[in-house]
């Protein structure tokens, strides 16, 4: 969430117009974002509104820079603008993205988030990560988002897309406003339309409202309109008192956003508070007479704060991936990590600013001064970075230091088996179909399903929708999955023949990971057990089973499997096993698992009495043959990938048992 606009004067003429207070405002914005992302003592629960400060500052400063060049022809004007923007944004951004791809490949285990993270990073290289994030199901404030090292690039995407529009709009305003009446009204009209879109989308499509330009345009446009107002002498200053009033009011509004901004009402209407406050602050810094400075003005222009403001782009770029990689490895909760974090980020930001940003921007070579050369070189750099990042994502196993790089062992992919698979020749099985319907646990059986398909020669059809449990046995099946569930059922009804098997594979236990186990084991287990609602589960189950029974297919349900308090894929390496997320351990007492799944088994027994075509397969004896269930077998191989999804090895452990269960069903029909 950053506005990479002009920060330091690069010529004597520009130095005369340099406002150190603007850098002071940048410092406040970036520090608020960092404090928010660290979640340090919950000091700034609305610190994410620092991005809105950046948007307004960017709109103001970019428009100010454009005003100095409207004497040029339109083509030269655009080329010069994009030359300066590319030199300003790309070098540090591409370095951070490429480093992040490498570090992620080396230290971050390949988990269900990896593909989404990679897609976000690849899109960030071409300025479109905000579109990728808006198309995902996870909002900005979700725990899953905290593990995406490229999440913060969404705001750069918004700004880069804004840069495609503003230069032409402002050129039209400067050159044509005297004889084209709409020229002066175009930017205000677009800003008003954007504000309306923001209000509507916040209520109806919050992801688009948060991430995409149509609902954010007004924030950047507000800064541009402020420059027009100040530049046109619409606002004038008669004495220092006005600037001081503006400064106090602006700081009050910005602080209000930092402390009280409501996430569910963002960007509308809460962004209005921060945007208004930032406009007042910029006006105060711009209008403040040199002879009359308040203590707050002096603070904004103090060397330490101004220096942080100059570093703010690099600080913003580096602070988030460093935090994410600490979360993936040591854990950001550790005191040592919290102490080292600011020094690491400051050092990397200073290096980036002094060794990458400044030399490239201040250089006098043809690369920096010829617009066509700059643009061409930038396109080549973007293309090479994208190809390098793509190679890294395709070859993660070759450079990873994590045990999870062995995808055959850890991941339930449709691997062709390395072991010999002896096919079963049985006329009772020939021509049969196996339909598998459920949530992400259906996907976690893919290795197993591939083996069954090869051994039995049956056709397997999968219908998997993450988070959409079917006959969960612990509560009502999710209503927001009705459309996906109905589409899958309709297809099964159209394809299934009498005697085919429909396997309902889903999570059937309350998750254990993420609970406060340190507060007391007994309380955590009691809380999990209290979440089982067999009354609602029975209603959902009967509705599904009645419909499937009408197809004359046989129905198979897997009994609840063991699950764990911590994810093996995040706790199996020397650089991550000390992470606080791993503290609950990777074993659970079998007696506790038995107690947690007892209500589900009781419900299953009743359903079997009422539905003769229902069969139950129980994988627990194979996954937990001892008094304590472990995420690993006795040879140290992972049975589970995360806290409740099987690994590839776990799938292979169950293959013979499932195969025998399927054969038994078909032979007994």
- From the spread of the alpha carbons, the general shape counts as elongated
* Widest sheet: strand ordering: 2-1-3-4-6
Total domains, how many?
Answer: 2
**Low-confidence spans: pLDDT under 50, at least 5 residues?**
5-16
The counted number of beta strands is 7
The portion of residues forming beta strands comes to under 5%
General description of the model:
There is one protein chain. This protein has 669 residues and is mostly helical. The protein has two domains: 12-399, no CATH class; 404-668, 3-Layer(aba) Sandwich (Rossmann fold). 59% of the residues lie in helices and 5% in strands. The protein is built from 28 helices and seven strands. The protein has helices at residues 12-15, 20-38, 50-67, 74-107, 114-125, 129-134, 154-163, 166-176, 181-204, 206-211, 217-231, 240-260, 270-287, 295-300, 303-328, 335-362, 366-369, 371-394, 396-399, 407-410, 440-443, 446-456, 482-495, 521-530, 534-549, 590-610, 620-623, 648-668; strands at 433-438, 459-464, 501-505, 554-558, 587-589, 614-617, 628-630. It has a five-stranded parallel sheet with strand order 2-1-3-4-6, sandwiched between helices. Helix 2 (20-38) packs parallel to helix 15, helix 3 (50-67) crosses helix 13 and helix 4 (74-107) runs parallel beside helix 18 (371-394). The longest helix is centred in the N-terminal third of the chain and has 34 residues, at 74-107. It is elongated. The termini are far apart. Residues 5-16 have low confidence and may be disordered.
